[in-house]
Amino acid sequence: MSRHKPSMPVLVQDILLRILCSCDITTVLTATPVNRTFHALATSKYVWLGLLFDLHRRGFIDLRPGQRLKDFSKDELVGLAKRAVHGPRTWATSDPNDLPAISRQVVLKNNIQRVAGVLHWVNDPQLLPGGRFLLFQNRGTLECRSIIEDRSIWEYKSKARWTSSTVQMYTSDMIYGGEAVILLLGIRTYESERKNFLEVVRLDLNTGLATSLLLKAAPDTSYDNPFRCVKVRGDFAVAAMNSQDGIFMTVQISTGNSSILHSSPVFDIDLITDHVVMSGPSAPEVDSGHCHLRIWPSRALVACDEEYASLDTIDPVVNITIDVSSVSYRSVGLASHLSPLSDSTCIIWAVFSAPSSSFVYKYRARYSPSQVLSVTPLSSWGRQENVRRRARNGFSISFAGAVDLWENENVTVLPLAGIDKPLRLPAVERVHISAYSGAIAYATGDLRIIINYYE
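== F-box domain-containing protein ==
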């Protein structure tokens, strides 16, 4: 055998390394105890660097300005993966004296304008996955800012011929690779007749160029804050309206098809891959003490051709009954996040909140193109609050279960599970918790956007 020709074991190891780098974390961890060779390969920096590069491209890893994955040690790479699952270390420890500690704070300056009828609460920052950019709702419009350069790379300008309009609410879905983001905007116009619209925009983060993909009229409302929530994932978007009838709209972006349905007046809604998730009572059970976690294929809701049909007439593929008779809940919070550990899994949080108590439910959903969606309850528990806390309109829940609540007119961020270690923030209306890194962003009234990263 030529001395320049690799031996078979080296070739095998090289192939195994490439295979492991293309797997998800759960598969790699499963392979670790097979034998010494697998253990050595699966615990090597080469494999973990490949895993973390993939997680970063998919938006599970936020890097702070100046950080590069190749500069991390193997243990630090593993620590980043743990952070994506469990949140910051000082949030997850069982020691009640080990309070969340800020490892770095980034302050962005912005020309926040105080005009008549506009208070600081409309200034709504959201970190984009990956940690390079931040979206900021400001003065009734929307901009995207580079965190590293502290400058605006794009500002929304409507292509429609409206004389007056504002962006009332927005959300985003990062495209694989982090080079572009899909934005869903809830817009209110102030013409002779006030109307609501949904617009879907694709923003190229490298060039700052935006393309409007869809503009649809949304249901009319008597409120000037017409949207309860807006969500987008993949090819589908939903918008829940502020109405007594539980009105919401489902849209397929690629076709432009949409439907308008109604449910009970108290609910929250979210999207997982090709499915709509809703928590809340069915219409006949509003006062029964029972709620449901229900899931429908997104296409089934879009295909409903009866306008303002009751959601209860469409059979869900998942229907889990939740007993909330012991808590007089005033709000329902729902959040779903793809799992960093497995390509076919997501975690769903459902929170039923009252001033002095709340109920928390955690579920795991598994899906694939060839299998029926299955949902498994993971845990549930009640929380008795020592102080009056309540869910806020538009509050966020991270993958690890950190949530922001009102507490005596200030904002408190605390983990839903484990030791109650509240982090108290100034009295700002909008706080965004990064889904996986646990970074917190909020805007102050003195022209600053604050981003806190935690140990």
